């Protein structure tokens, strides 16, 4: 069977690391199975959906290495949704309800007080044409519910009706349709909720696997019933665990927490984000992968645990460092140039190879370039006896070409002349040369500075 998956974000904000987890699970599943990946924008919320968000989502996914085979917009498929809704109405499976939110809440509380499950009692099915007309006369507009197949003869006498599926992530699952309210598919204003357009589009686009967050598990039974009501076999479902913040809070597009756009602007590497978003909360070791193709080779959706996974930015920093420290100059040269490094300088490539093990992000190298070309940073300063020591040491700089052996010869001469050793010997010279107390090996920096650049830093 040919595999077709989809990622269906709402273009109402920037996607965050939790949304991307779902996109990546689908993308890797498609890669591993030689399948197709559809990016389908759930943009039926006309007021909140914006093209700028859709464009940003597409850009974010492309940056992360997710390249859709097709891009669809649900707002352009209204005719198909309307036709399906009409079929359900004609079959008596989509019925109008006129209750207000307050009335529904009151009924729910009454059922709870009687120790009954707070499910909708299908009172709207008892309405006569005259009663419906009276509501219409009051200005009420109906919302429409899907009649779940959880009864034998009377819809008011439900019975246990199990829907089973073998979840791609969680294994065998069961949902009892009698434990659920008939889901609302159409709002009072005539707009569709997520469920109907999603099912219709999944059918018409030939989606074979739906992989999503486990907050949708309980919805799956009703959606399988809707597939069947529309004469289609339901796709395979998979529900992965969700990501939360370190404090256990859910991620939100509105808050902008850990949005891909923000992480990208902060200088994180795409594969650091991808690796952590996929591997956290699974039985696999969290390690930086070189590409989504490499990650797909070992990807197993069933490795996800059943409990939520906490996304810790500190872990992202670790992975990012691992990746940055191994990046060759050719890969980062454009970004270095954007950060202010003169990549036409003959020292540029050697400079990157020297400093990359001491930066967390590629852009951090710019500050070391300024130190190299403009002078020491102001982060640290010489004090007291260290000033006199450094002046004396600068007079001992070995003659000849400055190369990798210069630092050893220089510090040996300083040690012999002053009796200093260890940190007291090395640190004042590091501060004088760089204005920082840590960083790349001074032995590697000296050839980049050259004799003139070194002596210009004599206090």
UniProtKB/TrEMBL annotation:
GO cellular component: cytoplasm
Chain span(s) of sequence motif 'KMSKS' region: 250-254
Main location: cytoplasm
Top-level taxon: Bacteria
Residues in Aminoacyl-tRNA synthetase class I anticodon-binding domain copies: 347-457
E.C. no: 6.1.1.17
Glutamyl/glutaminyl-tRNA synthetase class Ib catalytic domain ranges (all copies): 3-317
Compartments in which it is found: Cytoplasm
Keyword check for ATP-binding: yes
Catalytic activity: tRNA(Glu) + L-glutamate + ATP = L-glutamyl-tRNA(Glu) + AMP + diphosphate
Any matching Pfam family: tRNA-synt_1c
GO terms of biological process kind: glutamyl-tRNA aminoacylation
Motif ('HIGH' region): 9-19
Any one Gene Ontology molecular-function term assigned to this protein's record: zinc ion binding
Positions contributing to ATP binding: 253
UniProt entry keywords in alphabetical sequence: Aminoacyl-tRNA synthetase, ATP-binding, Cytoplasm, Ligase, Nucleotide-binding, Protein biosynthesis
PANTHER family xrefs: GLUTAMATE--TRNA LIGASE, GLUTAMATE--TRNA LIGASE, MITOCHONDRIAL-RELATED
Protein role: Catalyzes the attachment of glutamate to tRNA(Glu) in a two-step reaction: glutamate is first activated by ATP to form Glu-AMP and then transferred to the acceptor end of tRNA(Glu).
Family according to the record: Belongs to the class-I aminoacyl-tRNA synthetase family. Glutamate--tRNA ligase type 1 subfamily.
Oligomeric and partner information: Monomer.
Classification via NCBIfam families: gltX_bact (TIGR00464)
HAMAP family: Glu_tRNA_synth_type1
Protein known as: Glutamate--tRNA ligase
Source organism: Oricola thermophila
Lineage of producing organism: Bacteria, Pseudomonadati, Pseudomonadota, Alphaproteobacteria, Hyphomicrobiales
